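Quick one: structure for this chain?
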Amino acid sequence: MIAIEKACAKLNLTLGVLLRRADSYHELDSIMQCVSLYDRVLVEKSRKVEVYVSGADLPRENSMYLAAKRYKEVTGCGALVRCEKKIPLEAGLGGGSADAAAVLRGLQKLHRMATDEELLKIALSIGADVPFCLRGGLARCQGIGEKLMPFAAKNPLYFVLAKPKAGVSTRALFAALPLPRPKAQNLQAMRALAQGDATSLAPYLFNALEAPALTLVPEIGQYKKRLLGAGALAAIMTGSGSAVFGLFASEAEAIQAEAELQDLHWVCRCNSV
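Got it. Here's what it folds into:
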């Protein structure tokens, strides 16, 4: 038996950084949305922990390996994992987190040996975004990512993603992050999402990491301008970058924008899921 999972990328519609904790983690307040761009993850039962990846060069102890290894430590159940990568690396799209979450979901389908509490503990031990990716959808995420407040948007959202060739190291960016950062207007953004109005949502798209990331990868600003020039209601960097996304009023406008931006290093049209 094989469990086949979609490891969906995530966008930070908002990202506020509140403070640096004593344990060196940062307190965050973010609205995250899963989108239709995904890696394909296949999980099989095994006595060992083995992970094979196509489409990207990952270290042996990648997020999927850690997820399978820690699940085995808790339950005794190993895994043979195969992943077909589509989500670019060092993009802020949560590809590694989504892959780890997909492995955990797959293992649970095959074995059902971990409790919800154990699964969440494993997820958080791998990365701050893994608990959100484990659930998917749309949620306000607080703490270091473990406090989730799921909610629903009235209408689907349409995006065009674009990533410069250079990536951003999340660890390096947070290590040099000056505090305090401007705050995200999350309540207003949540209200606009609930009302289903992309035009009303646009002014509240915000990323507190964007300005510091621009000093590392100036192309982020250039890609934002291109997205806005192609008709985006708003354009911001997602996560720690370097990918940026534009929000569009309709699918048709997103399709047209994607066609206009084919000269960029990497472009992808997607929608909320």
